[in-house]
Structures are given as structure tokens and as C-alpha cells.
Amino acid sequence: MSKMRCDAAGPITLLICCLMLCGILFVTAGWFVPNTYSLNSSLPATVNEANIYRYERVESGKAVSTVIGMVCLLFADVGLLIMLVNVVTKCGCTQKHLPDHESNERVPVLPSPKQR
């Protein structure tokens, strides 16, 4: 089995996965958490005013959660793009394979047919 010199960036990959997971959770919370506060004509005005305040606080929290999630997803996408460019430029077509056995011997380089 041959080994390649292209190593994956472990901690960066873990960071990107965490950013994506947090982003998905925050956006999901922002979009799908219901806001159950509403006005009711049978309640006194002070209770309705408190419900309006709670409704606005929940909506503000949902908006902040969505924005935080979008920022996390944006950073994760930028990280994935950087990793993709890094892999393509460094490991694309110029992969260097190590010999199957680890030794200190030099592998002889044969001249090309044009040089013979």
C-alpha cells in the first residue's frame, strides 16, 4: 500500500464541522421555534401589553439566532473553500507516492528516452 504526502488538516476539519453544526442548529432554532405569544381581546390591556413585549423579545431572539447561524455557516463555507483550494493546488495532479517500504535507500532515477 502506498502512502501519500498530502495530509488532511485534522483540527481545521473539526473546527469547520463544529461551525457547520452550530450554524445549522442556530438557523433551525431561528426559523422553526414557534412564537406563541398573541393578543387576546378577553384579556386586560396590561396583559396584552406584556404579551406584545414577550412577542417582540422572542422575535428578536429568533432573528439573532438566525444571523449567528448564518455567520457560522459562512465561516464554515469559507473554510471548506480554502481547504478545497489547498487540496487542489498541493495534492491535485502532483501527488508524490512514497515507496511501500520505509527505507533510507535512494530510488534510482532513470533518464528519459530523449536523454539516452
UniProtKB/TrEMBL annotation:
Start and end residues of each stretch annotated as Disordered: 96-116
TM region positions: 12-33, 63-88
Keyword set, alphabetical order: Membrane, Transmembrane, Transmembrane helix
Lineage top rank: taxon: Eukaryota
Top-level taxonomy: Eukaryota, Metazoa, Spiralia, Lophotrochozoa, Platyhelminthes
Keyword Transmembrane listed: yes
Annotated protein name in UniProt: Uncharacterized protein
